[in-house]
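Known limitations

Files may contain more than one protein. Parsers should not assume a single record per file. Below, a two-record file is shown to illustrate correct handling: read the sequence, read the token line, then continue until end of file.
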Amino acid sequence: MTATSSSAIADGSYVELTYLVRDSKTGDVLTEVLRPLNYVHGVNEILAPVITRELEGKTQGDRVDLLVDCNELYGPRDDTLVITQPVAHVPREYRELGTQILMENNLGQLKSFLVTKIEGDTITFDGNNPLCGREVIYQVKIQLVRDATDQEKQMGTSEAPDQQA
């Protein structure tokens, strides 16, 4: 089948979208994805299920604005996941704001932490999702909707892996 702009998102639809996440209190843009992400609806999810459900029935060119309580997506903020260390104890390559670090606990479990503050001789790592504790607005712009090919349905995404962000 050929793609038409009247195709509505349903299970088996190939979808390309861009989005931005805005803090609902300040209006600040927290994340912006300009290069279209793609997925096959009902096969895999690139956004949280609460957001994906809102896309059903929408068509190419539609924009969906959705208020999301990130505590529902990521759980409440956990202050035990905030670690402050002397900078001298941290390798130089991790001493930059925004650096993501994979840390291992005593049980061998890996967790991603972000450098969130460097102040004086201390550095702070935070293992909470950066959106934790916030209420945000997801603004999703649907770039393309069409029937997915059999191969795309099997893969859950585009046939061309270089199109994934």
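...continuing to the second record:
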Amino acid sequence: MRKLTYMMISFLIVCASCDSKKEENKETKDTVAVDSSTMKKKASVTLKWTTDTMLTTCESVLFDKERKILYVTNINGQPDQKDKNGFISKVSLDGKIENLQWVTGLNAPKGMGLYKNKLYVTDITALVEIDIEKGKVVKKYEVSGAKFLNDITVDTAGVVYFSDSFANKIHALKSGKVETWKEDGLNQPNGLLAINGKLYLASMGSNDLKVFDIASKKDSVLATGLGAGDGVVATGEEGYFIVSDWNGVVYHLGSAEKPRVILDTKEQKLNTADIEFIQDQNLLLVPTFFGNKIQAYEFTE
């Protein structure tokens, strides 16, 4: 791997988060909990398990509820190079790597979205469609003008939304065709979550969490000071979310409350990339990117 591109990507992400508000946190070895009088809830996370470090530059993790399995994207190279080194792993819910190279031949796979029997993955300039039962790529949607496709979310109707962090766009796959859904007012968009007719967006450049009404595309800012926003998930409690900052911080926030740090792994030099949350198990899954492992935390709200 050439270090230059990694340095470039890291520089952009660090620059994006330089204006983030620093928040004090209180940490023990396995548990992080931060109290604040402005928060109604006091959330904490406790480390449950860590995978082996056989994963390689793991960027995203996604839970398949039907099959009770985790999918993990492995860049295994430079985040923007088409080298066909990328792959997807299958990991059990207790952290065992069941199939390290389940799907291979990708370039630098990042975000994932699931709909019925299809797994959708961003791969630099293409949206890749994988047949889960076959474990094979069945279609690629090359996106015109794409620069750095990143996160994915799928709504209940099967519309696939995905971000392009460097082209400052959000695209949507509808009825087999890719269209640009949003291209103005974005600043390095990344993490996406479609739920209840809303599209939530965590951005690396503006360091905030926005919510769009999908029908009107009108947006509002829910929170600022979130660093290089990467993943966004709902906790299951109405109006509450968890957002990761790629630099190694995870926030818990409510729609009427300020973000609060629940995990800080910067001193361990572990990134916190595109997170997943399994609501019925209160399990927060964190890809550590250069740390080459997934860490699972029990979340208490």
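Parsers that stop after the first record will miss the second one. For reference, the second record is described as follows. The first helix runs from residue 3 to 16.
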